[in-house]
């Protein structure tokens, strides 16, 4: 996977979160945090860079949604 794939996936998840009331961005973020050690240890260098980019985009979405609610 490439960095563009990571950006596209984060944008896709953002779109799903806005369109679906049953999708929880916070639950996804929690799931990633619970399994991050498995993800990181099984990644190559380039995969971990792409995952970091994806994670950064998802974290920004979570923070933005939290700020909108407060």
Oligomer: single chain
Query: What's the number of helices?
Result: 4
The parts where pLDDT drops under 50 for at least 5 residues are: none
Straight-line N-to-C gap: 36 Å
One letter per element, helices H and strands E, the order comes to HHHH
Largest sheet: none
Dominant shape = globular
Calculate the mean pLDDT score and round it.
Answer: 90
Query: How many β strands by DSSP?
Result: 0
Which structural class matches the secondary elements?
A: mainly alpha
Keywords:
single chain, 4 helices
Structure description:
The protein has helices at 3-19, 25-34, 36-41, 45-69. It is globular and about 35 Å long. The chain is mostly helical.
Describe the secondary-structure layout:
Blueprint: H1 3-19, H2 25-34, H3 36-41, H4 45-69
Helix pairs in contact: 1-4
Brief write-up:
83% of the residues lie in helices and 0% in strands. It is mainly α. Helix 1 (3-19) packs parallel to helix 4.
